[in-house]
Amino acid sequence: MRAAQAKRELERRTPRSRAIACERAEILNSGLAANLEMPHPILIERGEGAYVYDADGNRYLDTSVGFGLHILGHRHPDIEAAIKARTELGWMFGIHTTVQMKLASMLHEASPCAERVVFCNTGSEATMYAIRAARAVSGRERIALFDGCYHGAHDYGMWVTDPNSPVAAPGKLPMGHGIPGAIEELVTLLPYRHPAAFDLIRAQADELALVLVEGVQSSNPQPGAGEFLAELAEVCRTSGVLFGIDEVITGFRLAYGGAQERFGVVPDLATYGKVLGGGLPVGAVTGRADVMEVFTGLAAKRGIFSGGTFSGNPLTMEAGAAMLSHLREHPEIYGRLDAAGDRLAAAVNGFCEANRIPAQMKHAGSMFHMFFQREPIDCMRDAKPGREAAEKAFYLHALNRGVLIPGTQRAFLSTAHGDAEVASLIRVFQDSLADVQEEGLFH
Ligand SMILES: Cc1ncc(COP(=O)(O)O)c(C=O)c1O
After folding, report:
1. N or C end: fewer C-beta atoms under 10 angstroms in the chain?
2. Is 338 a catalytic residue?
3. At residue 375, does pLDDT exceed 60?
4. Which ranges of 3-55 does DSSP label H, i.e. alpha helix?
């Protein structure tokens, strides 16, 4: 089938989504910033397990699972029960509540670096606070981030690599307009999984407040990320620079103890979001007690401001505690998620090789990402532009076959994706790739 035909079929099946999407554009301006970008407008009405249902009643096998946070699938009964029970008691007070300690203790126990814990509301807030804390503790202002990493929407993280700059010394470009030029002076971009990153850290050691890295890059998930992480931690330690792992995605996904547990690397600070909140908005910073002390108030030594209307709100705390309780009681989940990810990637990559299709799936456990090239991809600098039409057509075909793959390409499996769902994904990925190949879109 050609992509145009898949589009027509989708249009025929989604009239209500289409009408709402048109009406919505007049009032609600939210692009990728608020919701997943899809190859065709669909508006979701409900979710159940591994599936979501759109406004026209069509069912899709979901590989976004709420930007990765529903690791147990949509509407897990334990989480739903916890949310319902909380609604009978009131769900927002703005004053400390008894339930905060439940989730704080679990996070304290789970996160290897967590001598102390602070809650906020999103992953973006968590990384913003980690940066502020590191600046306060070190008395330095420059931070170092990696090429291809994402740490949230605040100005400090809105830098992408200038593709024309040398690999060993990435130049920066702002991600869109509105990012103050002055911030650029405070950010060093480092090449990911490249030894030049270590040289840059050593050279700038006296200026750097923090080196922050994702546990595994969600833009480029690779199971071998741990070796680099361990070396990076050591370089930061010997250079006297604080080291932070952003576990917003990897926390409670790669392992119960996140990338720290999986790779045996303990940073000074770690940031959390997503799975931690059981499906409700959450962020958290964990870390060494002497660093985290800055969060105890402005009167503390080098104290910083942190706070927020919804930080530690009881509804999120209950949902998060229900999520973590389930994960803690079922450690076998992680082996199953990894096996499902391995099976999917092996089948898709084997199919691409056998049929000489220039595409590949990168994955680490249950996180995966499709790339449309044959050349190896160790870091995002290796990802080549030029096959956008093939990529778009692939997502369109998959959606038309009832599989939702986020246009941000960061895709995930959940425990609700059983053997049958993984088999469906394999079939749909293979058929959709074959369609794109047949139409001649892989130039
Ligand atoms: C690694 C990482 N850090 C931070 C964030 C920002 O989290 P949020 O969208 O909750 O602000 C994200 C979001 O996807 C992320 O993937």
Report:
1. C
2. no
3. yes
4. 3-13, 15-25
From the CB of 147, is ligand 1 less than 6 Å away? no
352: left (phi over 0), alpha (psi -120 to 50) or beta: alpha
State the distance from the centre of ligand 1 to the C-alpha of 271, rounded, in angstroms. Answer: 9
Check residue 26 and give left, alpha or beta (phi > 0: left; psi -120 to 50: alpha): alpha
CA of 249 to the centre of ligand 1 (A): 7
Which helix (H) or strand (E) element contains residue 103?
Answer: helix 100-110
Distance 11 CA to ligand 1 centre (A): 32
Rounded CA separation 150/405 (Å): 19
127 Cβ closer than 6 Å to some ligand 1 atom: yes
Whether 246 is a known active-site residue: answer yes
From the candidates 274, 338, 362, 395, give the one annotated as an active-site residue: 274
* Sign, CA torsion 75/63/330/315: negative
**Contact 122 CB / ligand 1 (< 6 Å):** yes
Q: For residue 195, what are the CA distances in angstroms to 200, 201, 235, 431?
A: 9, 10, 11, 40
Q: Whose CA is closest to atom 8 on ligand 1? A: 123
Percent of the chain clearing pLDDT 90 (strictly above): 88
pLDDT band at 19 (very low <50, low <70, confident <90, very high): confident
Say if residues 73 and 278 touch (Cβ distance below 8 Å).
no
Over residues 245-258, mean pLDDT: 98
Model confidence pLDDT, tens digit, residues 67-79: 999 999 999 999 9
pTM over cut 0.85 = yes
Which residue is listed with tokens 């070796």?
227
Q: How far does the centroid of ligand 1 lie from the alpha carbon of residue 353, in Å? A: 33
Backbone angles phi, psi at 209, to 5 degrees: -80, -35
Distance CA 289, CA 77 (A): 36
Whether 51 sits among the annotated catalytic residues: the reply is no
Residue 27, pLDDT score? 79
DSSP codes of every residue in 303-347: ------TTTT-HHHHHHHHHHHHHHHH-THHHHHHHHHHHHHHHH
Which residue out of 60, 129, 150, 156 is catalytically annotated? 150
Atom nearest to 124 CA in ligand 1 = 11
Q: Rounded to 5 degrees, what angle do the CA atoms 152, 153, 157 make?
A: 70
pLDDT of residue 32: 46
Query: Nearest to residue 67, comparing CAs of 243, 212, 281, 259?
Result: 281
Concatenate the DSSP letters of all residues of 134-179 into one string: HHHHHS--EEEEETT----SSGGG-EEEETTS-TTS-EEEESSS--
The full set of domains in the chain, from first to last, is 3-62+333-438 (3.90.1150.10), 77-329 (3.40.640.10)
